[in-house]
Design brief:
112 residues; 3-stranded mixed beta sheet; 5 helices; 3 strands
């Protein structure tokens, strides 16, 4: 479900507990939805609240590494998995549990 919210920056989609929040939906396609569904899987396997805590901690660590907000975001392991496989609509049917841990090491972002 996509909820329209004017507080969300343009061309961003925020996933909160399996609901998607965006300013407008004109840019959201099946690949964006697949990206968000990968986040759904990550959230479920970490029982939601730990996902958000780990996401924030890793973002802060990446910010210290890259000194750049955007690079920090793209190098969060959860995002790296979602971007690497967001265009593969079959990925979730064969995704191993905790697949995001494979993207935890520091390195160039994948899928961008």
């Amino acid at each position: 479900m996509i909820i329209k919210c004017r507080l969300i920056p343009r061309r961003y989609c925020l996933n909160l507990f399996g609901t998607y929040w965006a300013r407008d939906t004109s840019w959201i396609d099946r690949y964006v939805i697949n990206h968000e569904r990968i986040h759904d899987a990550q959230q479920r396997e970490l029982l939601y609240l730990p996902f958000y805590l780990l996401y924030l901690i890793e973002w802060l660590i990446r910010l210290l590494q890259y000194h750049n907000l955007q690079e920090a975001y793209y190098n969060i392991s959860f995002e790296r998995e979602a971007y690497a496989h967001g265009r593969n609509l079959e990925y979730l049917s064969r995704r191993p549990a905790f697949a995001w841990t494979r993207f935890f090491r520091k390195g160039d972002r994948q899928g961008k």
